[in-house]
Amino acid sequence: MSPPPSEAPVLAPALRLDAAALRQRLADPDSVPRDRPSPQEDLDRAARAGGRIVQAAVLVPLVVHPEPTVLLTLRSARLSSHAGQVSFPGGRMEAGETPEEAALREAEEEVGLDPGLPELVGRLPSVLTGTGYLVTPVVALLRPPFGLRHDPAEVEEPFEYPLARLLDPAAPERRRQEFRGRIREFWVWPHERHYIWGATASMLVTLAAVLRGRG
């Protein structure tokens, strides 16, 4: 019996994680799908609302196992913002930093990842969070072996999410919820122990489309 259409035909090409192909795909902004409005549209809305934007960056590590994964973290419940949420390693950018420099620095601080190990391949479109962070996701290939020593003040635990599940178009669920008098729509990804939603879930939707080669 042949597999359902959402399985092998879609997954096989993407699971190779070819660095050159990813660089080419991410080098052309017009080819990168956007789950959310463009950064400029978000900034325009924030400016009209008088919001203050904080520049931030996260590292999106694609772990090159025989069955690849993406590395995520569960943030500490003691943090002042986004406490207890699933995210990529990352944080606010310091003065003069590029997104790549900030993402690597934060990954080292949060999970003890050697900044010389990730092979950077490009960026996903920036995402403006509801808390005023304009986050640039920096995509990298991460080849084992590598050691992690997370900082418990910032991260409860690092964990890996299977790329096969990420690339299944039926996996993410679109939900609606009323918040401050308005209906909000957001993505949720299935996981046995963690609730993956918000900006991280949106970045994962965009990442999956890039890996499948779809704009």
TrEMBL record:
Any one Pfam family match given in the protein's UniProt record, by short name: NUDIX
Cofactor dependence: Mn(2+); Mg(2+)
MF (Gene Ontology): coenzyme A diphosphatase activity; metal ion binding
Domain Nudix hydrolase: 53-183
Keywords: Hydrolase, Magnesium, Manganese, Metal-binding
Keyword hit for Metal-binding: yes
Start and end residues of each stretch annotated as Disordered: 26-46
Recorded superkingdom: Bacteria
Family: Belongs to the Nudix hydrolase family.
Protein name: 8-oxo-dGTP pyrophosphatase MutT (NUDIX family)
Organism: Neoroseomonas alkaliterrae
